[in-house]
Design goal:
Order of helices and strands of chain B: EHEHEHEHH
Helix content of chain C: 40-55%
Number of helices of chain C: 15
Largest interface: A-C, 65 and 69 residues
CATH architecture of the largest domain in chain B: 3-Layer(aba) Sandwich
Distance between the termini of chain C: 27 Å
Chains: A mainly alpha, B alpha/beta, C alpha/beta, D alpha/beta
Number of helices of chain B: 5
Largest sheet of chain B: 4 strands, parallel
Oligomer: heterotetramer
Number of domains of chain C: 2
CATH class of the largest domain in chain C: Alpha Beta
Radius of gyration of chain C: 19 Å
Shape of chain C: globular
Distance between the termini of chain B: 21 Å
Strand order of the largest sheet of chain B: 2-1-3-4
Chain lengths: 196, 178, 290, 682
């Protein structure tokens, strides 16, 4: 029998983390959470989560940063907004999940070869470089980076897409190339200014 | 000025709704800007336009009037009567070159402590942006100008030589607003 | 009626059947659309997970381009685009700090965004601008006998849509009924299809698609009608995997616009039913009086 | 003017109110500052001015220092003006030689900067000093109180208040909108936590109301207009046509038995539409008064269209078997019209109650979509022995294959429906936890079903309430802490087939669960009645932001309103259970009695009068007065004010072009000096 320490010490907290998250636009209402569990009750993916959405909310509020950023929950959120519309305290839970994903990516604390952040990263790169997404190409790239074997398993799907005329590895792009990159650099610059 | 300038607001609140709402804001420990001095009246209908002009003339940068919501007046329709006078007054103020934002009428019910806070904070910010009205100082300046002008006329007339119909020494000028 | 049209990446790729069927239907109803010049990816759900400022900037570039057309209304058929563009507009109007950053970023590429273009969904436009009566008039081959499960998915009713009820949307129900189809009532019409998780975490994602397909079949539906390229993809493309993991639940999933084309009697290259992996086999007969 | 100034001797007191004021206002500094102002002979700061020693201090100073004006800077005048006026009077001065400065509610409690708060206190104090110099001695007027009382609403609150007053010998008008008194309580089966039957404890009180010589009971009636003021209200009551002469009906119900409709056919309001009634009906067996009524919407003797004035058109198409059955009693009258009655009362008690939250507003719980989803009030009727099923709990949905009604084997009770939710009502409705547990107990008793309670928090603050919770736990009722996400009818697993499935996070276990049940009960919350805003206007009351009627003070004046002589009781003021409602109704009755038995009310002498010499006779004030207190003397061409009618709003004063109207306590000079005072700092 393998046993694990589950107690939390004050040293496990990162004081200020909760406040920091709650200061992000869209995340303010978290302070009103009454832990009713409606979010988990309506979440179609809560059945796979290590922490239910409700627990994530409490962990954020209580500054348990490491637990939250390492949880699978934030990656399982499919952005269906059911929790956000049903929450009796109008907490924008989906937006909080986005915020937590961002922080996890920035800090690089997600599991290696974990496909979801990789997809997000490839996605943003493609938008930055080309302005548009070529889905099949994007998905192929994601599989190659995370699980090449699974890409083989998807071969049947690719074939079907090809048959229905929906498969293309051609990269679609906007005319004003470089404009997206310029735009994103400008956002970075403005954010840095705002932080300073 | 040694102290940073901060607007002064004189408020006329009706006893039944807005004054009570301000009490509620206090009981609820809401925090708002300390720039307002509240004067209690029984009804906003009691607010005489002269009160507003007098407050501005004596150095207020803004005047806030608080009454019950339309239809809720404790005295049936005092607030409507006020609204009528207020609309006229605002037009007049604009003609005098006083920004209409300086005089504000708000319906605040006894339950709306939160609104008292919001309105006072908003108005304080607005007046900060507008800057001081400073009527007393302006009056003093005008008075000085008027007196100086009168002196000038006297001097000129004196220089022009005596005029048989008029006495030589003019009557002393009194400051109009001092 | 003229709208700036934002197709989005999916409608040019795996979801091309949506665009291919929607545009002829709109034309048929006298709705003009003008594709926004040089639009870019809206940012979808993935971008929000990386940086909300950039996500807003990417979306705002499209809003700015739409404003340039002078058309005050923008049509966004893809659910993700519809949500993201609306969300960006909300953020720009609610958070001054965000607006500042985005305005300056747009400025660096010579664009301005006022943020006052109404971002609208085709269902909204069809029901409220065109009207069911006008649609009914165009129906030459009513879909009599076809049992359709209307599937709205998540992102057009939650959280920013105002054109339909969040819990029980009915715009597509009414539209399908106007086409002569039998509308199947089911409680899953706004449940999540799994989104991008079908690709990234199939066990979790596909299960959601499986539940939808199974329930639609159980309620006697012949076909599922969708409004979203990702939903259509998820419900249409993974039948083999779903059958292997759980049980076969074969039922076709098409865009509502394809069903409209069918009812309007538009030619096959405008209903593009051949693009579905599970084919819809239904030939509506011409209306008796037509 | 200079002369009066010289005579003025003001005493100034600034109150620390413990730390309430002193924490943010430098009271000694305020006292020092005020001490330098002209006319002030004495300026003190003191810990608690409202305490006995504080008041004695004022009296002593008046005598020793020959003060003739007093100013106290402390809390809101709405709280303690009366206290200090009395102290000034006890010191030998006219009580109106006093003015109060509010530096607590309007200063120390709402600011954060000590220097600025102190500055503000000084400015306000200075204004009062300037003002009080102009005060004049005034007389308090006494107005007699009409001893009759109007009680609006005949639920348990109204019933209890009316009986208390009537038993004290006062004449009471009890006006109820519905055809019978009893309110919500009459529909309940048992009451928590004692489980005594609601009807058993309520009906004796109802019949006592019906037969009490001091109570005039008007059911099926509504108050439509209220005029006057404390002690002297004139009220118009609309008595709606019930097409039955109340005084002739004996309650025999022969008309019902002989109605042309052999079977009851129309949804019965009292049973939440679960049962049926005829067009001529009595709401429920114990209805008070025992008088039937006819529903013109469905009675065959009326046409479905209406007269232009909204009254139904008599068709005379029906055989009128009811009239035949009534025979020479002749109680039925199809031509009856709504009737207006006017009464005079001195005090009013408003007990208009609540409405239950409309469960359709939470579509995720499926009310109105799935037949086996019920509201709690429906269950109250379903478990009641005199309810539509005779107390048998059977499902509304499809029957068994053999045609017998299905009985639930598992039941989910969802708490907090519509409550604690920013999208609907943010407040906790206070009674749902307890009534849900009561229903859990009753349903278990009736069906033996497996019962699940889904709650956010269990709230049992009441005598015997926590013990009741404990009893439920012993009975094996499941308690799952989690707000239900959704109720649907799609099955994941074979055991879910044909059931309603509740999806919820069991937050204590930290897992998401799907629980199939046969019946779902929604514990809907309490909310203000849809017409609360109109009722509020009618009686000149205030509503809180949430829509409940506002009490004068949440702790110290819980049954008073901002209008003197109008009191509140029961759920119209906020959600509460029966014991609290009855206690509040008793309190409201006691407040009314206190007024009546004193026999008079004191009126603030803040009325207006016209300076005869200065009135130009322009008549512009006359239409402004809502009380028609301003009259015109044609011979002298002057206006004059009937001070008995004047309420003291000052609207005429504010608009008199010649400035010839004076309002006591709010004279122009008093207000101008206050303006001068608040602006004279820096």
């Amino acid at each position: 029998m393998k046993i694990k320490r589950t107690i939390k010490y004050e040293a496990d907290r990162v004081p200020g983390f909760g406040r920091e998250v709650m200061s992000v636009p869209g995340c303010e209402a978290l302070e009103h959470c009454i832990q009713c569990g409606t979010c988990s009750g309506v979440c179609p993916l809560s059945i796979y989560m290590d922490y239910t959405p409700r627990q994530v909310m409490e962990l954020v509020r209580s500054d348990f940063k490491h637990e939250v950023l390492r949880s699978h929950t934030i990656w399982l959120c499919a952005s269906c907004y059911a929790c956000t519309t049903e929450c009796p305290r109008q907490i924008r839970i989906t937006d909080i999940m986005y915020e937590l994903k961002q922080r996890a990516i920035k800090e690089g604390v997600y599991p290696p070869r974990f496909p979801i952040p990789v997809l997000a990263e490839e996605f943003t790169k493609m938008v930055r470089d080309h302005g548009r997404i070529s889905e099949t190409r994007l998905v192929t790239k994601m599989y190659l980076r995370t699980n090449p074997l699974a890409a083989l398993g998807m071969a049947g799907l690719g074939l079907n897409l090809l048959k229905t005329g929906r498969f293309s590895l051609k990269q679609d792009r906007i005319e004003h190339r470089g404009e997206m990159e310029k735009l994103m650099t400008a956002v970075d610059r403005e954010n840095r200014k705002a932080d300073a | 000025m040694t102290k940073e300038w901060s607007p002064r607001i004189v408020a006329f609140f009706c006893n039944w709704c807005t004054y009570t709402a301000a009490d509620l804001a206090g009981v609820s420990r809401l925090k708002y800007a300390p720039n307002v001095r509240i004067i209690r009246l029984m009804c906003s209908g009691r607010v005489d336009p002269q009160f507003i002009l007098d407050a501005l003339a004596r150095g207020a940068d803004g005047v806030l009037i608080g009454g019950c919501h339309p239809g809720d007046c404790h005295y049936v329709e005092g607030n409507y009567k006020m609204l009528r006078r207020f609309t006229l007054l605002r037009r007049m103020l604009a003609d005098l070159g006083i920004e209409p934002e300086r005089v504000r009428l708000e319906w605040i019910s006894a339950a709306e402590g939160e609104k008292v806070k919001r309105v006072i904070n908003e108005m304080t910010e607005q007046l900060k942006a507008l800057g001081p009205l400073g009527l007393p100082r302006k009056f003093a300046e005008w008075d000085r100008e008027v007196i100086a002008l009168a002196r000038e006329v006297q001097d000129r007339e004196a220089a022009a030589g005596p005029c048989p119909e008029r006495p030589l020494t003019p009557e002393p000028q009194e400051a109009v607003h001092a | 009626m003229k709208y700036a049209y934002f197709p989005g990446c999916s409608l040019k790729g795996t979801g091309r059947a949506y665009e291919e069927s929607l545009l002829p239907v709109l034309r048929h109803l006298g709705v003009e659309v003008q594709e926004i010049e040089d639009w870019n990816c809206c940012g979808a759900t993935a971008y929000m997970a990386v940086d909300e400022g950039k996500a807003c900037a990417a979306a705002a570039r499209n809003l700015a381009l739409a404003e340039r057309t002078g058309l005050r209304q923008m049509l966004a058929p893809c659910s993700a685009c519809y949500l993201v563009l609306n969300k960006a507009q909300h953020y720009l109007n609610e958070y001054p700090a965000m607006r500042r950053v985005v305005t300056r970023a747009l400025d660096s590429v010579g664009l301005q965004c006022r943020g006052d273009t109404a971002v609208r969904h085709p269902l909204d436009v069809l029901l409220h601008d065109v009207g069911l009566d006008a649609i009914k008039q165009k129906v030459t081959r009513p879909l009599t006998g076809l049992k359709v499960a209307p599937y709205y998915g998540c992102q057009i009713v939650r959280p920013y849509a105002t054109f339909d009820d969040q819990a029980n949307p009915e715009s597509m129900d009414k539209l399908l009924a106007a086409l002569g189809a039998t509308v199947v009532r089911w409680p899953l019409k706004t449940k999540c299809c799994g989104g991008s998780l079908t690709g990234t975490l199939p066990e979790a994602g596909l299960r959601l698609s499986y539940i939808l397909l199974k329930e639609a079949l159980k309620r006697g539906a012949d076909v599922i009608a969708t409004v979203c390229p990702l939903c259509q993809f998820n419900l249409d493309s993974y039948h083999a995997k779903i059958a292997a993991r759980w049980e076969p639940v074969r039922i076709p999933t098409v865009y509502f616009s394809q069903l409209m084309g069918l009812a309007f009697g538009l030619p096959a290259e405008q209903t593009v039913l051949h693009r579905g992996m599970v084919p819809l086999r239904f030939e509506p007969a011409p209306a008796a009086h037509a | 003017m200079k002369a009066t100034r010289d005579e003025v001797r003001i005493g100034f007191y600034v109150c620390h109110c413990g730390h309430n004021i002193a924490a943010l206002v430098d009271c000694p500094a305020v006292a020092r500052y005020v001490g330098t102002l002209p006319g002030v002979v004495l300026s003190r700061d003191y810990k608690y001015m409202c305490s006995d020693p504080g008041q004695e201090l004022i009296q002593q100073d008046i005598r020793e220092h020959r003060l003739n004006r007093v100013v106290v800077a402390s809390c809101s005048p709405l709280l303690h003006e009366h206290t200090f006026r009395s102290a000034v009077e006890a010191g030998g001065l006219n009580p109106f030689y006093f003015h109060m400065v509010n530096i607590r509610e309007h200063d120390s409690w709402v600011h954060t900067d000590r220097i600025l708060a102190t500055e503000k206190a000084k400015a306000l104090a200075r204004a009062a000093i300037e003002r009080v110099a102009h005060h004049k001695p005034l007389e308090i007027k006494k107005v007699p109180i009409h001893p009759d009382v109007l009680v609006v609403g005949g639920g348990i609150a109204g019933i209890h208040a009316a009986l208390t007053l009537a038993n004290a010998g006062k004449k009471v008008y009890l006006v109820e909108r519905e055809p019978s008194i009893g309110g919500h309580m009459a529909r309940f089966d048992k009451t928590f936590p004692t489980l005594d039957c609601a009807a058993c404890i309520l009906t004796p009180k109802m019949s006592e109301v019906g037969s009490h010589p001091n109570i005039t009971l008007w059911t099926y009636s509504e108050v439509v207009k209220v005029d006057g003021y404390v002690g002297n209200y004139t009220v118009q009551v609309k008595r709606k046509a019930r097409y039955i002469h109340e005084d002739l009906c004996t309650g025999c119900q022969d008309c019902i038995a002989n109605c042309v409709y052999k079977e009851p056919k129309f949804a019965d309001e009292f049973n939440e539409g679960l049962g049926k009634r005829k067009p001529v009906f009595i709401p429920f067996p114990q209805a008070t008064p025992q008088v039937v009524l006819i529903d013109p919407e469905v009675c065959l003797n009326f046409k479905r269209n209406k007269n232009p004035d909204g009254t139904p058109v008599v068709s005379d198409k029906c055989k009128k078997t009811c009239v035949e059955a009534c025979g020479e009693r002749g109680a039925i009258d199809f031509t009856q019209k709504d009737e207006l009655r006017e009464i005079r009362v001195g005090t009013i008690i408003v007990c208009t109650g609540f409405q239950t939250f409309d469960a359709r507003r939470v579509p995720a719980y499926g009310y109105g979509i799935y037949p086996n989803v019920y509201t709690a009030l429906e269950i109250e009727r379903l478990v009641n022995a005199s309810g539509p099923t005779g107390g048998e709990v059977v499902l509304r949905g499809p029957k068994n294959p053999d045609g017998t009604p299905r009985k639930p084997r598992s039941i989910g009770i969802i708490h907090c429906v519509g409550s604690r939710d920013k999208k609907t009502n943010l407040w906790c409705s206070r009674v749902c936890c307890m009534y849900s547990m009561k229903l859990a107990h009753l349903l278990k008793e009736h069906t033996g079903a497996e019962i699940y309670n889904f709650y956010i928090d269990i709230r049992t603050p009441g005598k015997g309430y926590e013990e009741f919770y404990n009893k439920l736990l012993e009975e094996g009722t499941h308690f799952i802490r989690g707000r239900v996400g959704e109720v649907t009818d799609w099955a994941m697993t074979p055991e879910e087939e044909g059931k309603l499935v509740i999806r919820v996070e069991d937050t204590l276990a930290g897992v998401v669960r799907r629980i199939p049940v046969d019946m779902v009960v929604l514990a809907t919350g309490l909310e203000p009645r849809a017409d609360a805003a109109e009722v509020r206007r009618l009686f000149n009351m205030s509503c809180g932001g949430d829509g409940w009627f506002l009490e004068r003070h949440p702790k110290l004046a819980p049954v008073n309103t901002f209008t003197d002589g109008v009191f509140l009781a029961g759920c119209c003021q906020g959600p509460k259970d029966i014991p609290d409602t009855v206690a509040q109704a008793g309190a409201a009755a006691a407040e009314a009695l206190a007024l009546i038995d004193r026999g008079y009310v004191e009126q603030e002498p803040n009325t207006a009068h016209i300076l005869d010499n200065e009135c130009s006779g322009c008549k512009s004030c006359i239409p402004l007065c809502p009380y028609t207190a301003i009259l015109f003397d044609e011979t002298r061409q002057k206006a004059y004010i009937n001070e008995a009618l004047c309420k003291g709003c000052g609207t005429c004063v504010g608009s008199c072009p010649s400035g010839s109207i004076v309002q006591n306590l709010f004279e122009d000079e008093e207000i101008f000096s206050e303006i001068r005072g608040v602006l004279a700092y820096d």
